[in-house]
Design brief:
With 365 residues, this protein is of the alpha/beta class. It contains twelve helices and 18 strands. 32% of the residues lie in helices and 26% in strands. α5 (171-184) packs across α6 (201-212) and α5 crosses α11 (317-328). The chain binds zinc ion. Zinc ion binds next to α3.
Amino acid sequence: LHAERFCATTDAFNFTARTMSSRRMHAAVFDAPGPPEVVEYREVDVPSPGQGEVLIQVGAAAMNHLDLWVRRGLPIETTMPHIGGSDVAGIVVEAGDETARTLLGTRVVVNPGLSCGTCRECVFGQQSLCPDFRILGEHTDGGFADFVVAPIANLHLIPDHVSFETAATLPVSYSTAWRALISRARVRAGEDVLVIGASGGTAIAAIQIAKLAGARVFAVTSGAHNVRRVKELGAEVVYDRLEVDFARALHADTRRRGVDIVVENVGTPTWESSIRSLAPGGRLVTYGATAGPAAEIDLRRLFWRQLEIIGTTMSSNGEFAAMLRVAFSGALSPVIDEILPLSQAPAAHSRLETGTHFGKLILVP
Ligand code: ZN
């Protein structure tokens, strides 16, 4: 595998030399929001890195639910025409300034969280709370292309034994799950954790991180196939939400106590059951609302049972680095559903939308 990677590097540089003379590249682009069909695989200009930035030749880029929201036209400031892709791994091929030149030829994975670096939140090490917080591939052009520009401050070296495909699974999913469980919900060994919507990339990451922290994991997913796969990840009990009222089943399985932490990302359809699943003093941490943003809560339950509802998004630079360190040690095993050529990006959008995937969809230029 090692030798293969070095060959890939040489090929990459030959390819780069050819492409860079024309400054044109292939990318999965859309000109306006819409259904998966708006995504086109076509030629565009290669972007140029500025001060403090580098140009990366993309080795692999992973899809996230976020890519669907951006394509559908989330009310956010984004570039049009737009190239999505927040999870990027590749090789540094061009430096925007002198200091970046030492990075040429290195294999890197990008922290997609872009922050100002000077506000109070940034200085205190809470980058995802920065008022100017943005995400590569959401607010800027991302990695569904032959090349992408990224700030030097956001680059992390990939060890030789880790492939671009594996590295690309980590940024959004694993850093989000890391902050959600470790920092925000403060998971401790011996606690019970319930992960909702357990076939998605971030929920899979949450199951693995909760187990690593010494928690017992319960999970909710839909369909017999997903139940089996989630059990293989090490979840102790997995509920099929199409078959059972998971809050009720969980109470039976935890001797009417409930769980210490619920990890939510589904929203409206599961919210009430998620709240009912909390033990006294329990914490619900949420990083998404894939099936609807509206939710209600009985305040009497909230104060009498002393529950906590915690929002979280992405991660700080420190959390990102800690997550990578653990993942690269082999203690976390990302699940890849399928690796597709970048030209198949429209099909990958459709596939992610239908929810038939288990784990990550990876696009390779
Ligand atoms: Zn800031």
